Amino acid sequence: MTGLYYEEFEVGETIEHGKRRTISEADNQQFCDMTMNQQPLHLDADFAADTQFDDRLVNGLYTMSLAVGLSIPDTTDGTIVANLSYDNVEHPNPVFHGDTVRAQSTVTDKRETSDGERGVVTMRVEAFVVNRGGEDGEDDHEETLVCEFDRTVLSLKREDAE
């Protein structure tokens, strides 16, 4: 178990998640197939070539799900009771096949449940593409924010915390 218990979350703390993932065409295709999302912007290269993006986009829900998955080892792995909500979801920039994504979570709120048995923690999760080059085609090493949302969880408290 690597996740944090309620008492270990600190409001204002930003947790940098060390795992990253490069998204392949197969990842995007499989996610679209599993969720029955046949949007041509995700799957049809000819269709996508005639859009403002000039290429297929990775499904935004896959990007969001990946951000959650990247965050779990450092936040809620083994210490979560339930995910309560995902709010204020934004996709400010597109994700393309071959992009590498990393995530970070900032604790924005925490409170004990009314019975004091557990805790509710809210985190702002941000996903960034880390390998996108600049306009001149050179890798400028700047990250691009591609997804952000608030994730609220019901967290276990340490048994010895009482």
Explain what this protein looks like in three dimensions.
This protein is an alpha+beta fold. Helix content is 22%, strand content 33%. It has helices spanning 25-35, 40-43, 45-49, 60-75; strands at 14-16, 21-22, 80-90, 100-112, 118-129, 144-156. Strands 1, 2, 3, 4, 5 and 6 form a six-stranded antiparallel sheet that branches. The protein is elongated, with a radius of gyration of 18 Å.
Give me some keywords for this one.
alpha+beta; elongated; 4 helices; 6 strands; 162 residues; 6-stranded antiparallel β-sheet; Thiol Ester Dehydrase, Chain A
CATH architecture level-2 label = Roll
CATH superfamily: Hotdog Thioesterase
Structural class: alpha+beta
* Unreliably modeled segments: none
Strand content: 25-35%
| Sheet having the most strands | 6 strands, antiparallel
Overall number of strands: 6
Tell me the distance between the termini: 21 Å
SSE layout and pairing:
Layout: E1 14-16, E2 21-22, H1 25-35, H2 40-43, H3 45-49, H4 60-75, E3 80-90, E4 100-112, E5 118-129, E6 144-156
Antiparallel strand pairs: 1-4, 2-4, 3-6, 4-5, 5-6
